[in-house]
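Aim 2 progress update. The chain analyzed this quarter is reproduced below.
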Amino acid sequence: MAGYVIIDIEITDEALFAEFAEKIVGIVEAQGGRYLVRGGAAEGITGGWTPGRVVVQEFDSLDAARGFVESEAYKELEDIRLRSMNTRMIIVEGV
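Predicted structure tokens:
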């Protein structure tokens, strides 16, 4: 079953975020992932959730999704990520 990384992003530094965004695409692809959603219009419907920039990445399995998040390449971008955005992230198994 596929594994998904779902991220709700609040950008706090546009210039620094642009640097992160440029680098993360190659890391996702190198880990076997692909983008299903990458910051399109999002509308909260119920529950009081007002999402910012929503990202959904698909991987071949839950282990592959976890491997991406735990990869050294992803961890190398942690400083830029923490300085450019606030995030809420989950990993979920697909059907």
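The longest strand covers residues 3-11. The beta strands are 3-11, 34-38, 53-59, 85-93. These observations will guide the mutagenesis experiments scheduled for the next reporting period.
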